[in-house]
Design brief:
It comes from Araneus ventricosus (Orbweaver spider). With 154 residues, the chain is mainly alpha-helical. It has helices at residues 7-22, 59-78, 95-111, 132-141, 146-153; strands spanning 34-39, 51-56.
Length: 154
């Protein structure tokens, strides 16, 4: 839809994005999502735990996040971050690739008649909240540009 807007509107939106980057402030109205309950397959609809929340964010918010992510990744790549073992939230490295690595490691051990042990830790709701102060501290420690730190803090 946004791609089909008149040029005049696209230029205004570009100005808005440039300003939020310039002033290092992510608009509050873009930070508010609409949470909708989605029934889990095969679950009883009369129980609240049978639903998982899905948050719908404004379209412009998603574009803004992409702009910030591109700036973050540009700097992170120079620092060789994230580490090579990091999968997920990394371009061209979805979490399914990590599963394939584990399966390959198990098969290599099996083919070499070696014992392979694994410990898997699952923690629910890990990504619902971000400790902004801790994240900011890490970004500063890795010498990320101040404008990236400030816009993420906002």
């Amino acid at each position: 839809m946004l791609k089909n807007l008149p040029l005049k509107i696209i230029l205004k939106l570009t100005e808005i994005f440039n300003n939020f980057l310039k002033f290092r402030l992510f608009p509050n109205c873009w930070q508010t999502g609409r949470v909708l309950p989605v029934l889990k397959p095969g679950k009883d609809p009369t129980h609240p735990v049978s639903y998982r929340p899905i948050s719908l964010l404004p379209t412009l918010s998603k574009i803004g996040e992409k702009l910030i992510l591109n700036r973050y990744l540009t700097h992170a790549t120079k620092l060789r971050l994230p580490m090579p073992q990091q999968f997920g939230f990394t371009p061209q490295l979805p979490t399914t690739h990590q599963f394939l690595r584990v399966v390959e490691h198990i098969n290599e051990g099996k083919n070499s008649n070696l014992a392979t042990a694994a410990i898997f830790l699952y923690t629910a709701k890990d990504f619902y909240k971000v400790w902004i102060e801790g994240l900011s501290h890490k970004l500063i420690a890795y010498k990320f540009p101040q404008h990236i730190v400030e816009i993420i803090q906002s």
